[in-house]
Give the backbone structure.
Amino acid sequence: MANDIPVSQDSNDVPMLSCRGIWKVFGANKSKFEQSGGSDMTDEELLARGWTAAVRDASFDVARGEVFVIMGLSGSGKSTVVRCLSRLIEPTSGEVNVEGQDLLAASEAKLLKIRRQKMGMVFQHFALLPNRDVLGNVAFPLQVQDVARSQREERAREMISLVGLEGRENFFPGELSGGQQQRVGIARSLASDPAIWFLDEPFSALDPLIRADLQDELLRLQDQLHKTTVFITHDLDESIKIADRIAIMDQGRIVQIGSPEELVLNPANDYVARFVKNVPRSKVVRVSNIIRSATSADVVGDWVVNINDRLADVAPRIGGSTQPIAVQDDGGVTVGYVDRDKFVRILAGSA
Amino acid sequence: MGWALTIDNLPRLASSSVKCAVAVIALVLATSVGPGWLSTIPDWLVFPISQWVGDSLTWFAREASIGGLAVQEITRGFAELINKPIEAAVVILADGLFSGSGLDITQSVPPFSWLAIGGVAIIAAYRFGGSALALTTCICVSFLVLFGLWHNAMVTLSNVLVSVTIATLLGLALGIWSFRSAHVENVTRGIMNVMQTVPIFAYLIPTLLLFGYGPSAAVVATVAYALPPMVHNTVLALKSVPAETVECGRMTGCSRRQLLWQVQLPTALAKIAVGLNQSVMMTLNMVIIASMIGAGGLGFDVLKALRKLDIGAGLEAGMGIVALAIVLDRISQAVAKRAAHGKHREPGQWPLWRLLGLWIVVATGIALVFDPTQAWPKDYVISTATFWNDLVSWINRELYDVLDAFRTFALLQVMRPFRDALAVAPWTLMIGLLTIGAYALGGARLAIYCAALAFAIVLTGYWIPAMNSLYLILISVTLAVIMGFPIGFWLASRSRYQTAANLVLDTLQTLPTLVYLLPAVMLFRIGDVSAVIAVILYAMAPAIRYGMVGMSQVPVARLEAAQITGCTGWQTLRWIRFPAALPTLLIGINQTIMMAFSMLIIAALIGTKDLGQEILIALNRSLVGEGIVAGLCVACLALIADALLKAGAVRASTHGHKKKDQEHGE
Ligand SMILES: Nc1ncnc2c1ncn2[C@@H]1O[C@H](COP(=O)(O)OP(=O)(O)OP(=O)(O)O)[C@@H](O)[C@H]1O
Ligand SMILES: [Mg+2]
């Protein structure tokens, strides 16, 4: 299906984060990997050498302010990809650029500087320091940078109230619930105001209800802060809820990158199709996907819908109207119409 | 079920035991009819190894020089250096400052009063461990004060504090270094393993040579003894820091140094503190022994009492060490727990250091105006020494016949014949049996290893004392296991008593080894019987503990299966519980043997005639080489026992696996 509404992002700008042809082969080093055929190696050849290809040929860009979700089953290589992007794991081959700078060529000192100033990360099991209270944990990234005590504590208090933990500043991690601990983790990752925000399955260790709370919290924060975000999860509902774009990984390979709607409407292969099979389309597809341009026959009825609304939200209006319904953009200008039969066909999955 | 003597492994098993039997018979025949040197060790097989070792060490200390300075000068200088903090600690905690000289010497500044120091311990105990720990501490402090042991306890504490501080710093440094380099780790692990099997006495001799007699030599020997657990736990703790936590540190942009000091070490602190606790306990264990080379305090009191056979005084001073040990052990454990889980301060609650500072000022003020809080008046000192001594005389009077009959019977009917049998048995027969046994348990490598260690003992000329040690160890370990395991089994099915049992066992293991000699001597005077009883008392704790753990660890599903099948209680024990517990039980025997060795050497003080006695004699006469070589012979025996039992444990557990596979296959 043609999606003729352009995504509103500065596509001219250098992407905040981009990677090309990333390979991570455990057991091999760069030269051995390239000598034995590099990216042309088959599974059998890799196996014969006792190597594990955790990531194979990953390439993508993450635009400024975008929430980019990497999704896949356990062991598909998500954590490895995200660690290659910050060089926590050295990629076996490929390129990583941060705001146009070559990360893999950066010296040790340069790398430290980039991590200190540009990157923040949230971990699955929180990775809090048990000997520091909440304040000390959140202030930690600034302490590493030798920021003066009063200054870093002020900033830390700001972050703590941002994640709703005022009053717990002097508690130790062992005295907090899982959800609260991850709030501390989030506050800490934001303390040095990084441009890029990595989250590796941040909510997987939490109960479903707390998880939903924190997802909402994340959306609220992102609304405020517009971080360039790489978010790892194995939960499709979670990714649909928060993603601008999703990359699906299977055995180290990225098999499809697209918006939640694209994945649902146009899965690239069976693997993706099986993944998205049970997603209710109405919760994903937006009005923009079924819009048509105006014809002379159209009359503006009583109801209008917004172009970015999800179908589920506007179903009562569209379903209850025999007339085409006008679609407006955020400014209130009518940009097209939707028809009921098209709507029904999309929901039924036959379009 | 059980030992799974199924049709297919029957022939294999049979053929291997037939082979072993044939080998044993051949061996016995060869040694009994063969040439004489097969049964008694010929002179040409014994080398003056002790002499070589002694000469080279003496040469090293006296003649060798590093950068123009003789080694002994360097080490003596080092001893001077260590003396400074010890003296400072003694001044602060025990003696205060003196002015004047000769007869009109007066105390110009008193040390901190018992009220101040005891209060500090109680407050810290309350902060870290709550009111129960505070109460325990209070009881221990009162005991030391009321029984007039305070001053000497503080002398001991000074030595302990200095030793623990040095061991901790050194252990941390070595641990961090080993953590960062696999190469260094291999080297340190090897050295630490040997250090842990060499008996404590053996440390004292080279220490005396290099550092002279005195408190600083005692500290050096103690540090050497308390170091391994610190190093070991530091490496382990650093390795167990979660990968994510390290990644978090790297992502925040930590340099290597920041990562170590601000992320890895603090996160590992709880486990490092476990190492600290073990170091403290080993230091206390060493207190009495260290007094043989010049440490004063309670340790020296016990030693003195033991030499004079003044049971009452010895028991009291011994109990003083126990009180000190309990306080230090429990508080350092509580600190370790707190390090694992920080706890926030309630609003208005003072930081600990401020509270302690205030208390010291207040208590010192009180001590200035009210003297008894500075030094407990002599007239009010309680002593139970006379009671104990009276008890001993009473026992000697009233129970003499019974005890002596028992003693004579044990000695003449059981122990002597066994000892003589071991001493007379041809050495080749002993080594041959050992080799065959090792081969059957763990294959050729184990056999060669054990035979080589045993042969090393032959070469040193310590074969007979080694056989004496062996006989004492075999008797005591057998009895400790026979008594300990059933108690453990009994406890295993009664979970209500297990916490209490663990507490008692913990406390038993915090007692310094020498304390165990006192009741034995009290009842049976000096000699082998007392030694065996002391060793049993000391070594039974691990037998009970592992018996309990092993038996309570049997999978419930298997027990239920047995119940359904209609097994009687005895059948369940024989076929289900025992095989499942066997590997743990073997580890328990191993632990028991190791404990028995460390106690046996100390039992030399009450008149055994084994390797321990050789070391003690060497120590008293400053025979450097003899002491070290006899010590290494003990290490050889311990290493052989360790290797055999570990191989046995491995076999027992793989045996279980095989059985499981068969069950699946059917
Ligand atoms: N250090 C390593 N050495 C060898 N193989 C590794 C290493 N780390 C990861 N792998 C392998 O690489 C593959 C990808 O692992 P990765 O942790 O990236 O998966 P993941 O998608 O994050 O899975 P999960 O959802 O379980 O976290 C797995 O097969 C894993 O076994
Ligand atoms: Mg992962």
Observations:
- Chain A has 13 helices and 13 strands.
- Chain A touches chain B through 33 residues (CB under 8 Å).
